[in-house]
Model the fold of this input.
Amino acid sequence: MRSIISGLIGGLIAALLTAYIANRVGKGAEPGQLRYGKFMWILAVSCLVFALLPVASSFAGNDKDFWAKVALFIGFGIGSIYCFGEAAMVKGSFNEHGIAFYTPWSGRKDEKWSDLVSMEFVASCSWYTLAFRSGKRIRLSQYLAGHRAAVEMAETQSPLSAASDA
Done:
């Protein structure tokens, strides 16, 4: 019973922390810029530490559960690489004319607000998906500093705002 209660408390803390961070970074520190802040770097370093703990445990003489340690090392190692890649390389900018966005996973995308076809929030992934006439999609994570300002700009500058006003 205690493990269930502690799991629920941990889940509640994680949900509240996630909502707080997403709300705090929404507007961003620099107007017109999209970047990950300290949170993604902290997450990357945390994953790296969790990936290296089983290795350190093995060197310290604890040779039990070898395959579990390998799985932890691989899982958290991949998570760490992904988070470092996101934190260091994902960036973008936007103004009243359009948005330019780069990720190492899908490359550079330069689009105009006038070409925006749809915009939706995907709650299960915590991101906004912006679809453009060219067929390209830009996904703005809630953890990206400046995402809320970009979404508000898209709402006011795109043809979607004119369609919703009619």
Helices lie at 2-25, 38-59, 66-89, 147-157, 159-165. The chain has a mean pLDDT of 86. The chain has one domain: 1-166.
